[in-house]
Specification:
Structural class: mainly beta
Strand content: over 45%
CATH topology of the largest domain: Immunoglobulin-like
CATH architecture of the largest domain: Sandwich
Largest sheet: 6 strands, mixed
Number of domains: 2
Distance between the termini: 18 Å
CATH class of the largest domain: Mainly Beta
Strand order of the largest sheet: 1-17-16-2-4-14
Radius of gyration: 17 Å
Number of strands: 18
Number of helices: 0
CATH superfamily of the largest domain: Carboxypeptidase-like, regulatory domain
């Protein structure tokens, strides 16, 4: 059964939320694949699909994850990361750029082409990335309390691997679409398949 509710001021995202369940060994894990379509939008890319599990400690990657500034854009537009991840912000444009976040209350200053800045995201949430030098530049860093996540391609397809077997709730939400929730059961023998539509 699919339920829809209104959600405002959020980017086009989705999260796979875990019911309480012990972790499984990699050989016992399954996966979740599927497609999420956002009707009325030019693309279904950039939807974040993740499994949230309160309790277990997550380990961020040792190396920073990168978000570029190129052609007057943040790339990627939506960047999901594990809590505790350090993001390295690049500048590959000919002009200077800046990065600041109202939600994160940080301002990394301005820097020129070839230079970088870093910020570590310690608290789960959605953090808007803006440039004080170019007001039309905007992106989102989505900080998750889980290592199980994926982003959709332009067709809305995604795959999450090594998910422990069990019952989950798939939650998809969007800045301009209604939130959708759907139950999902993961089996180690075969991946669960999900198809959702985000409507007005």
């Amino acid at each position: 059964m699919v339920r829809q509710t209104r959600q405002g001021a959020l980017p086009l995202l989705a999260a796979l939320i875990l019911a309480t369940l012990p972790e499984a060994a990699p050989s016992q894990t399954g996966g979740v694949t599927g497609r999420i379509v956002a009707t009325g939008l030019p693309t279904s890319a950039g939807i974040v699909v993740s499994r949230e599990a309160p309790g277990p400690k997550v380990t961020p990657p040792a190396a920073p994850v990168e978000m570029d500034q190129r052609h007057m854009q943040f790339l990627p537009h939506v960047l999901p990361v594990v809590r505790g991840t350090t993001v390295r912000f690049l500048n590959n444009d000919r002009m200077g750029h800046n990065v600041f976040s109202p939600e994160g209350r940080y301002d990394l200053g301005a820097w020129t082409r070839g230079q970088t800045r870093v910020h570590t995201f310690s608290t789960p949430g959605v953090y808007t990335q803006l440039c004080r030098l170019h007001s039309d530049m905007q992106a989102l860093v989505v900080v998750l309390n889980t290592p199980y996540f994926a982003t959709t391609n332009p067709a809305g397809a995604f795959e999450i691997r090594n998910v422990p077997p069990g019952k989950y709730t798939l939650v998809a939400w969007s800045e301009k679409r209604k939130t959708v929730r759907q139950a999902v059961s993961v089996d180690a023998a075969k991946p669960a398949t999900v198809s959702l539509t985000l409507a007005n």
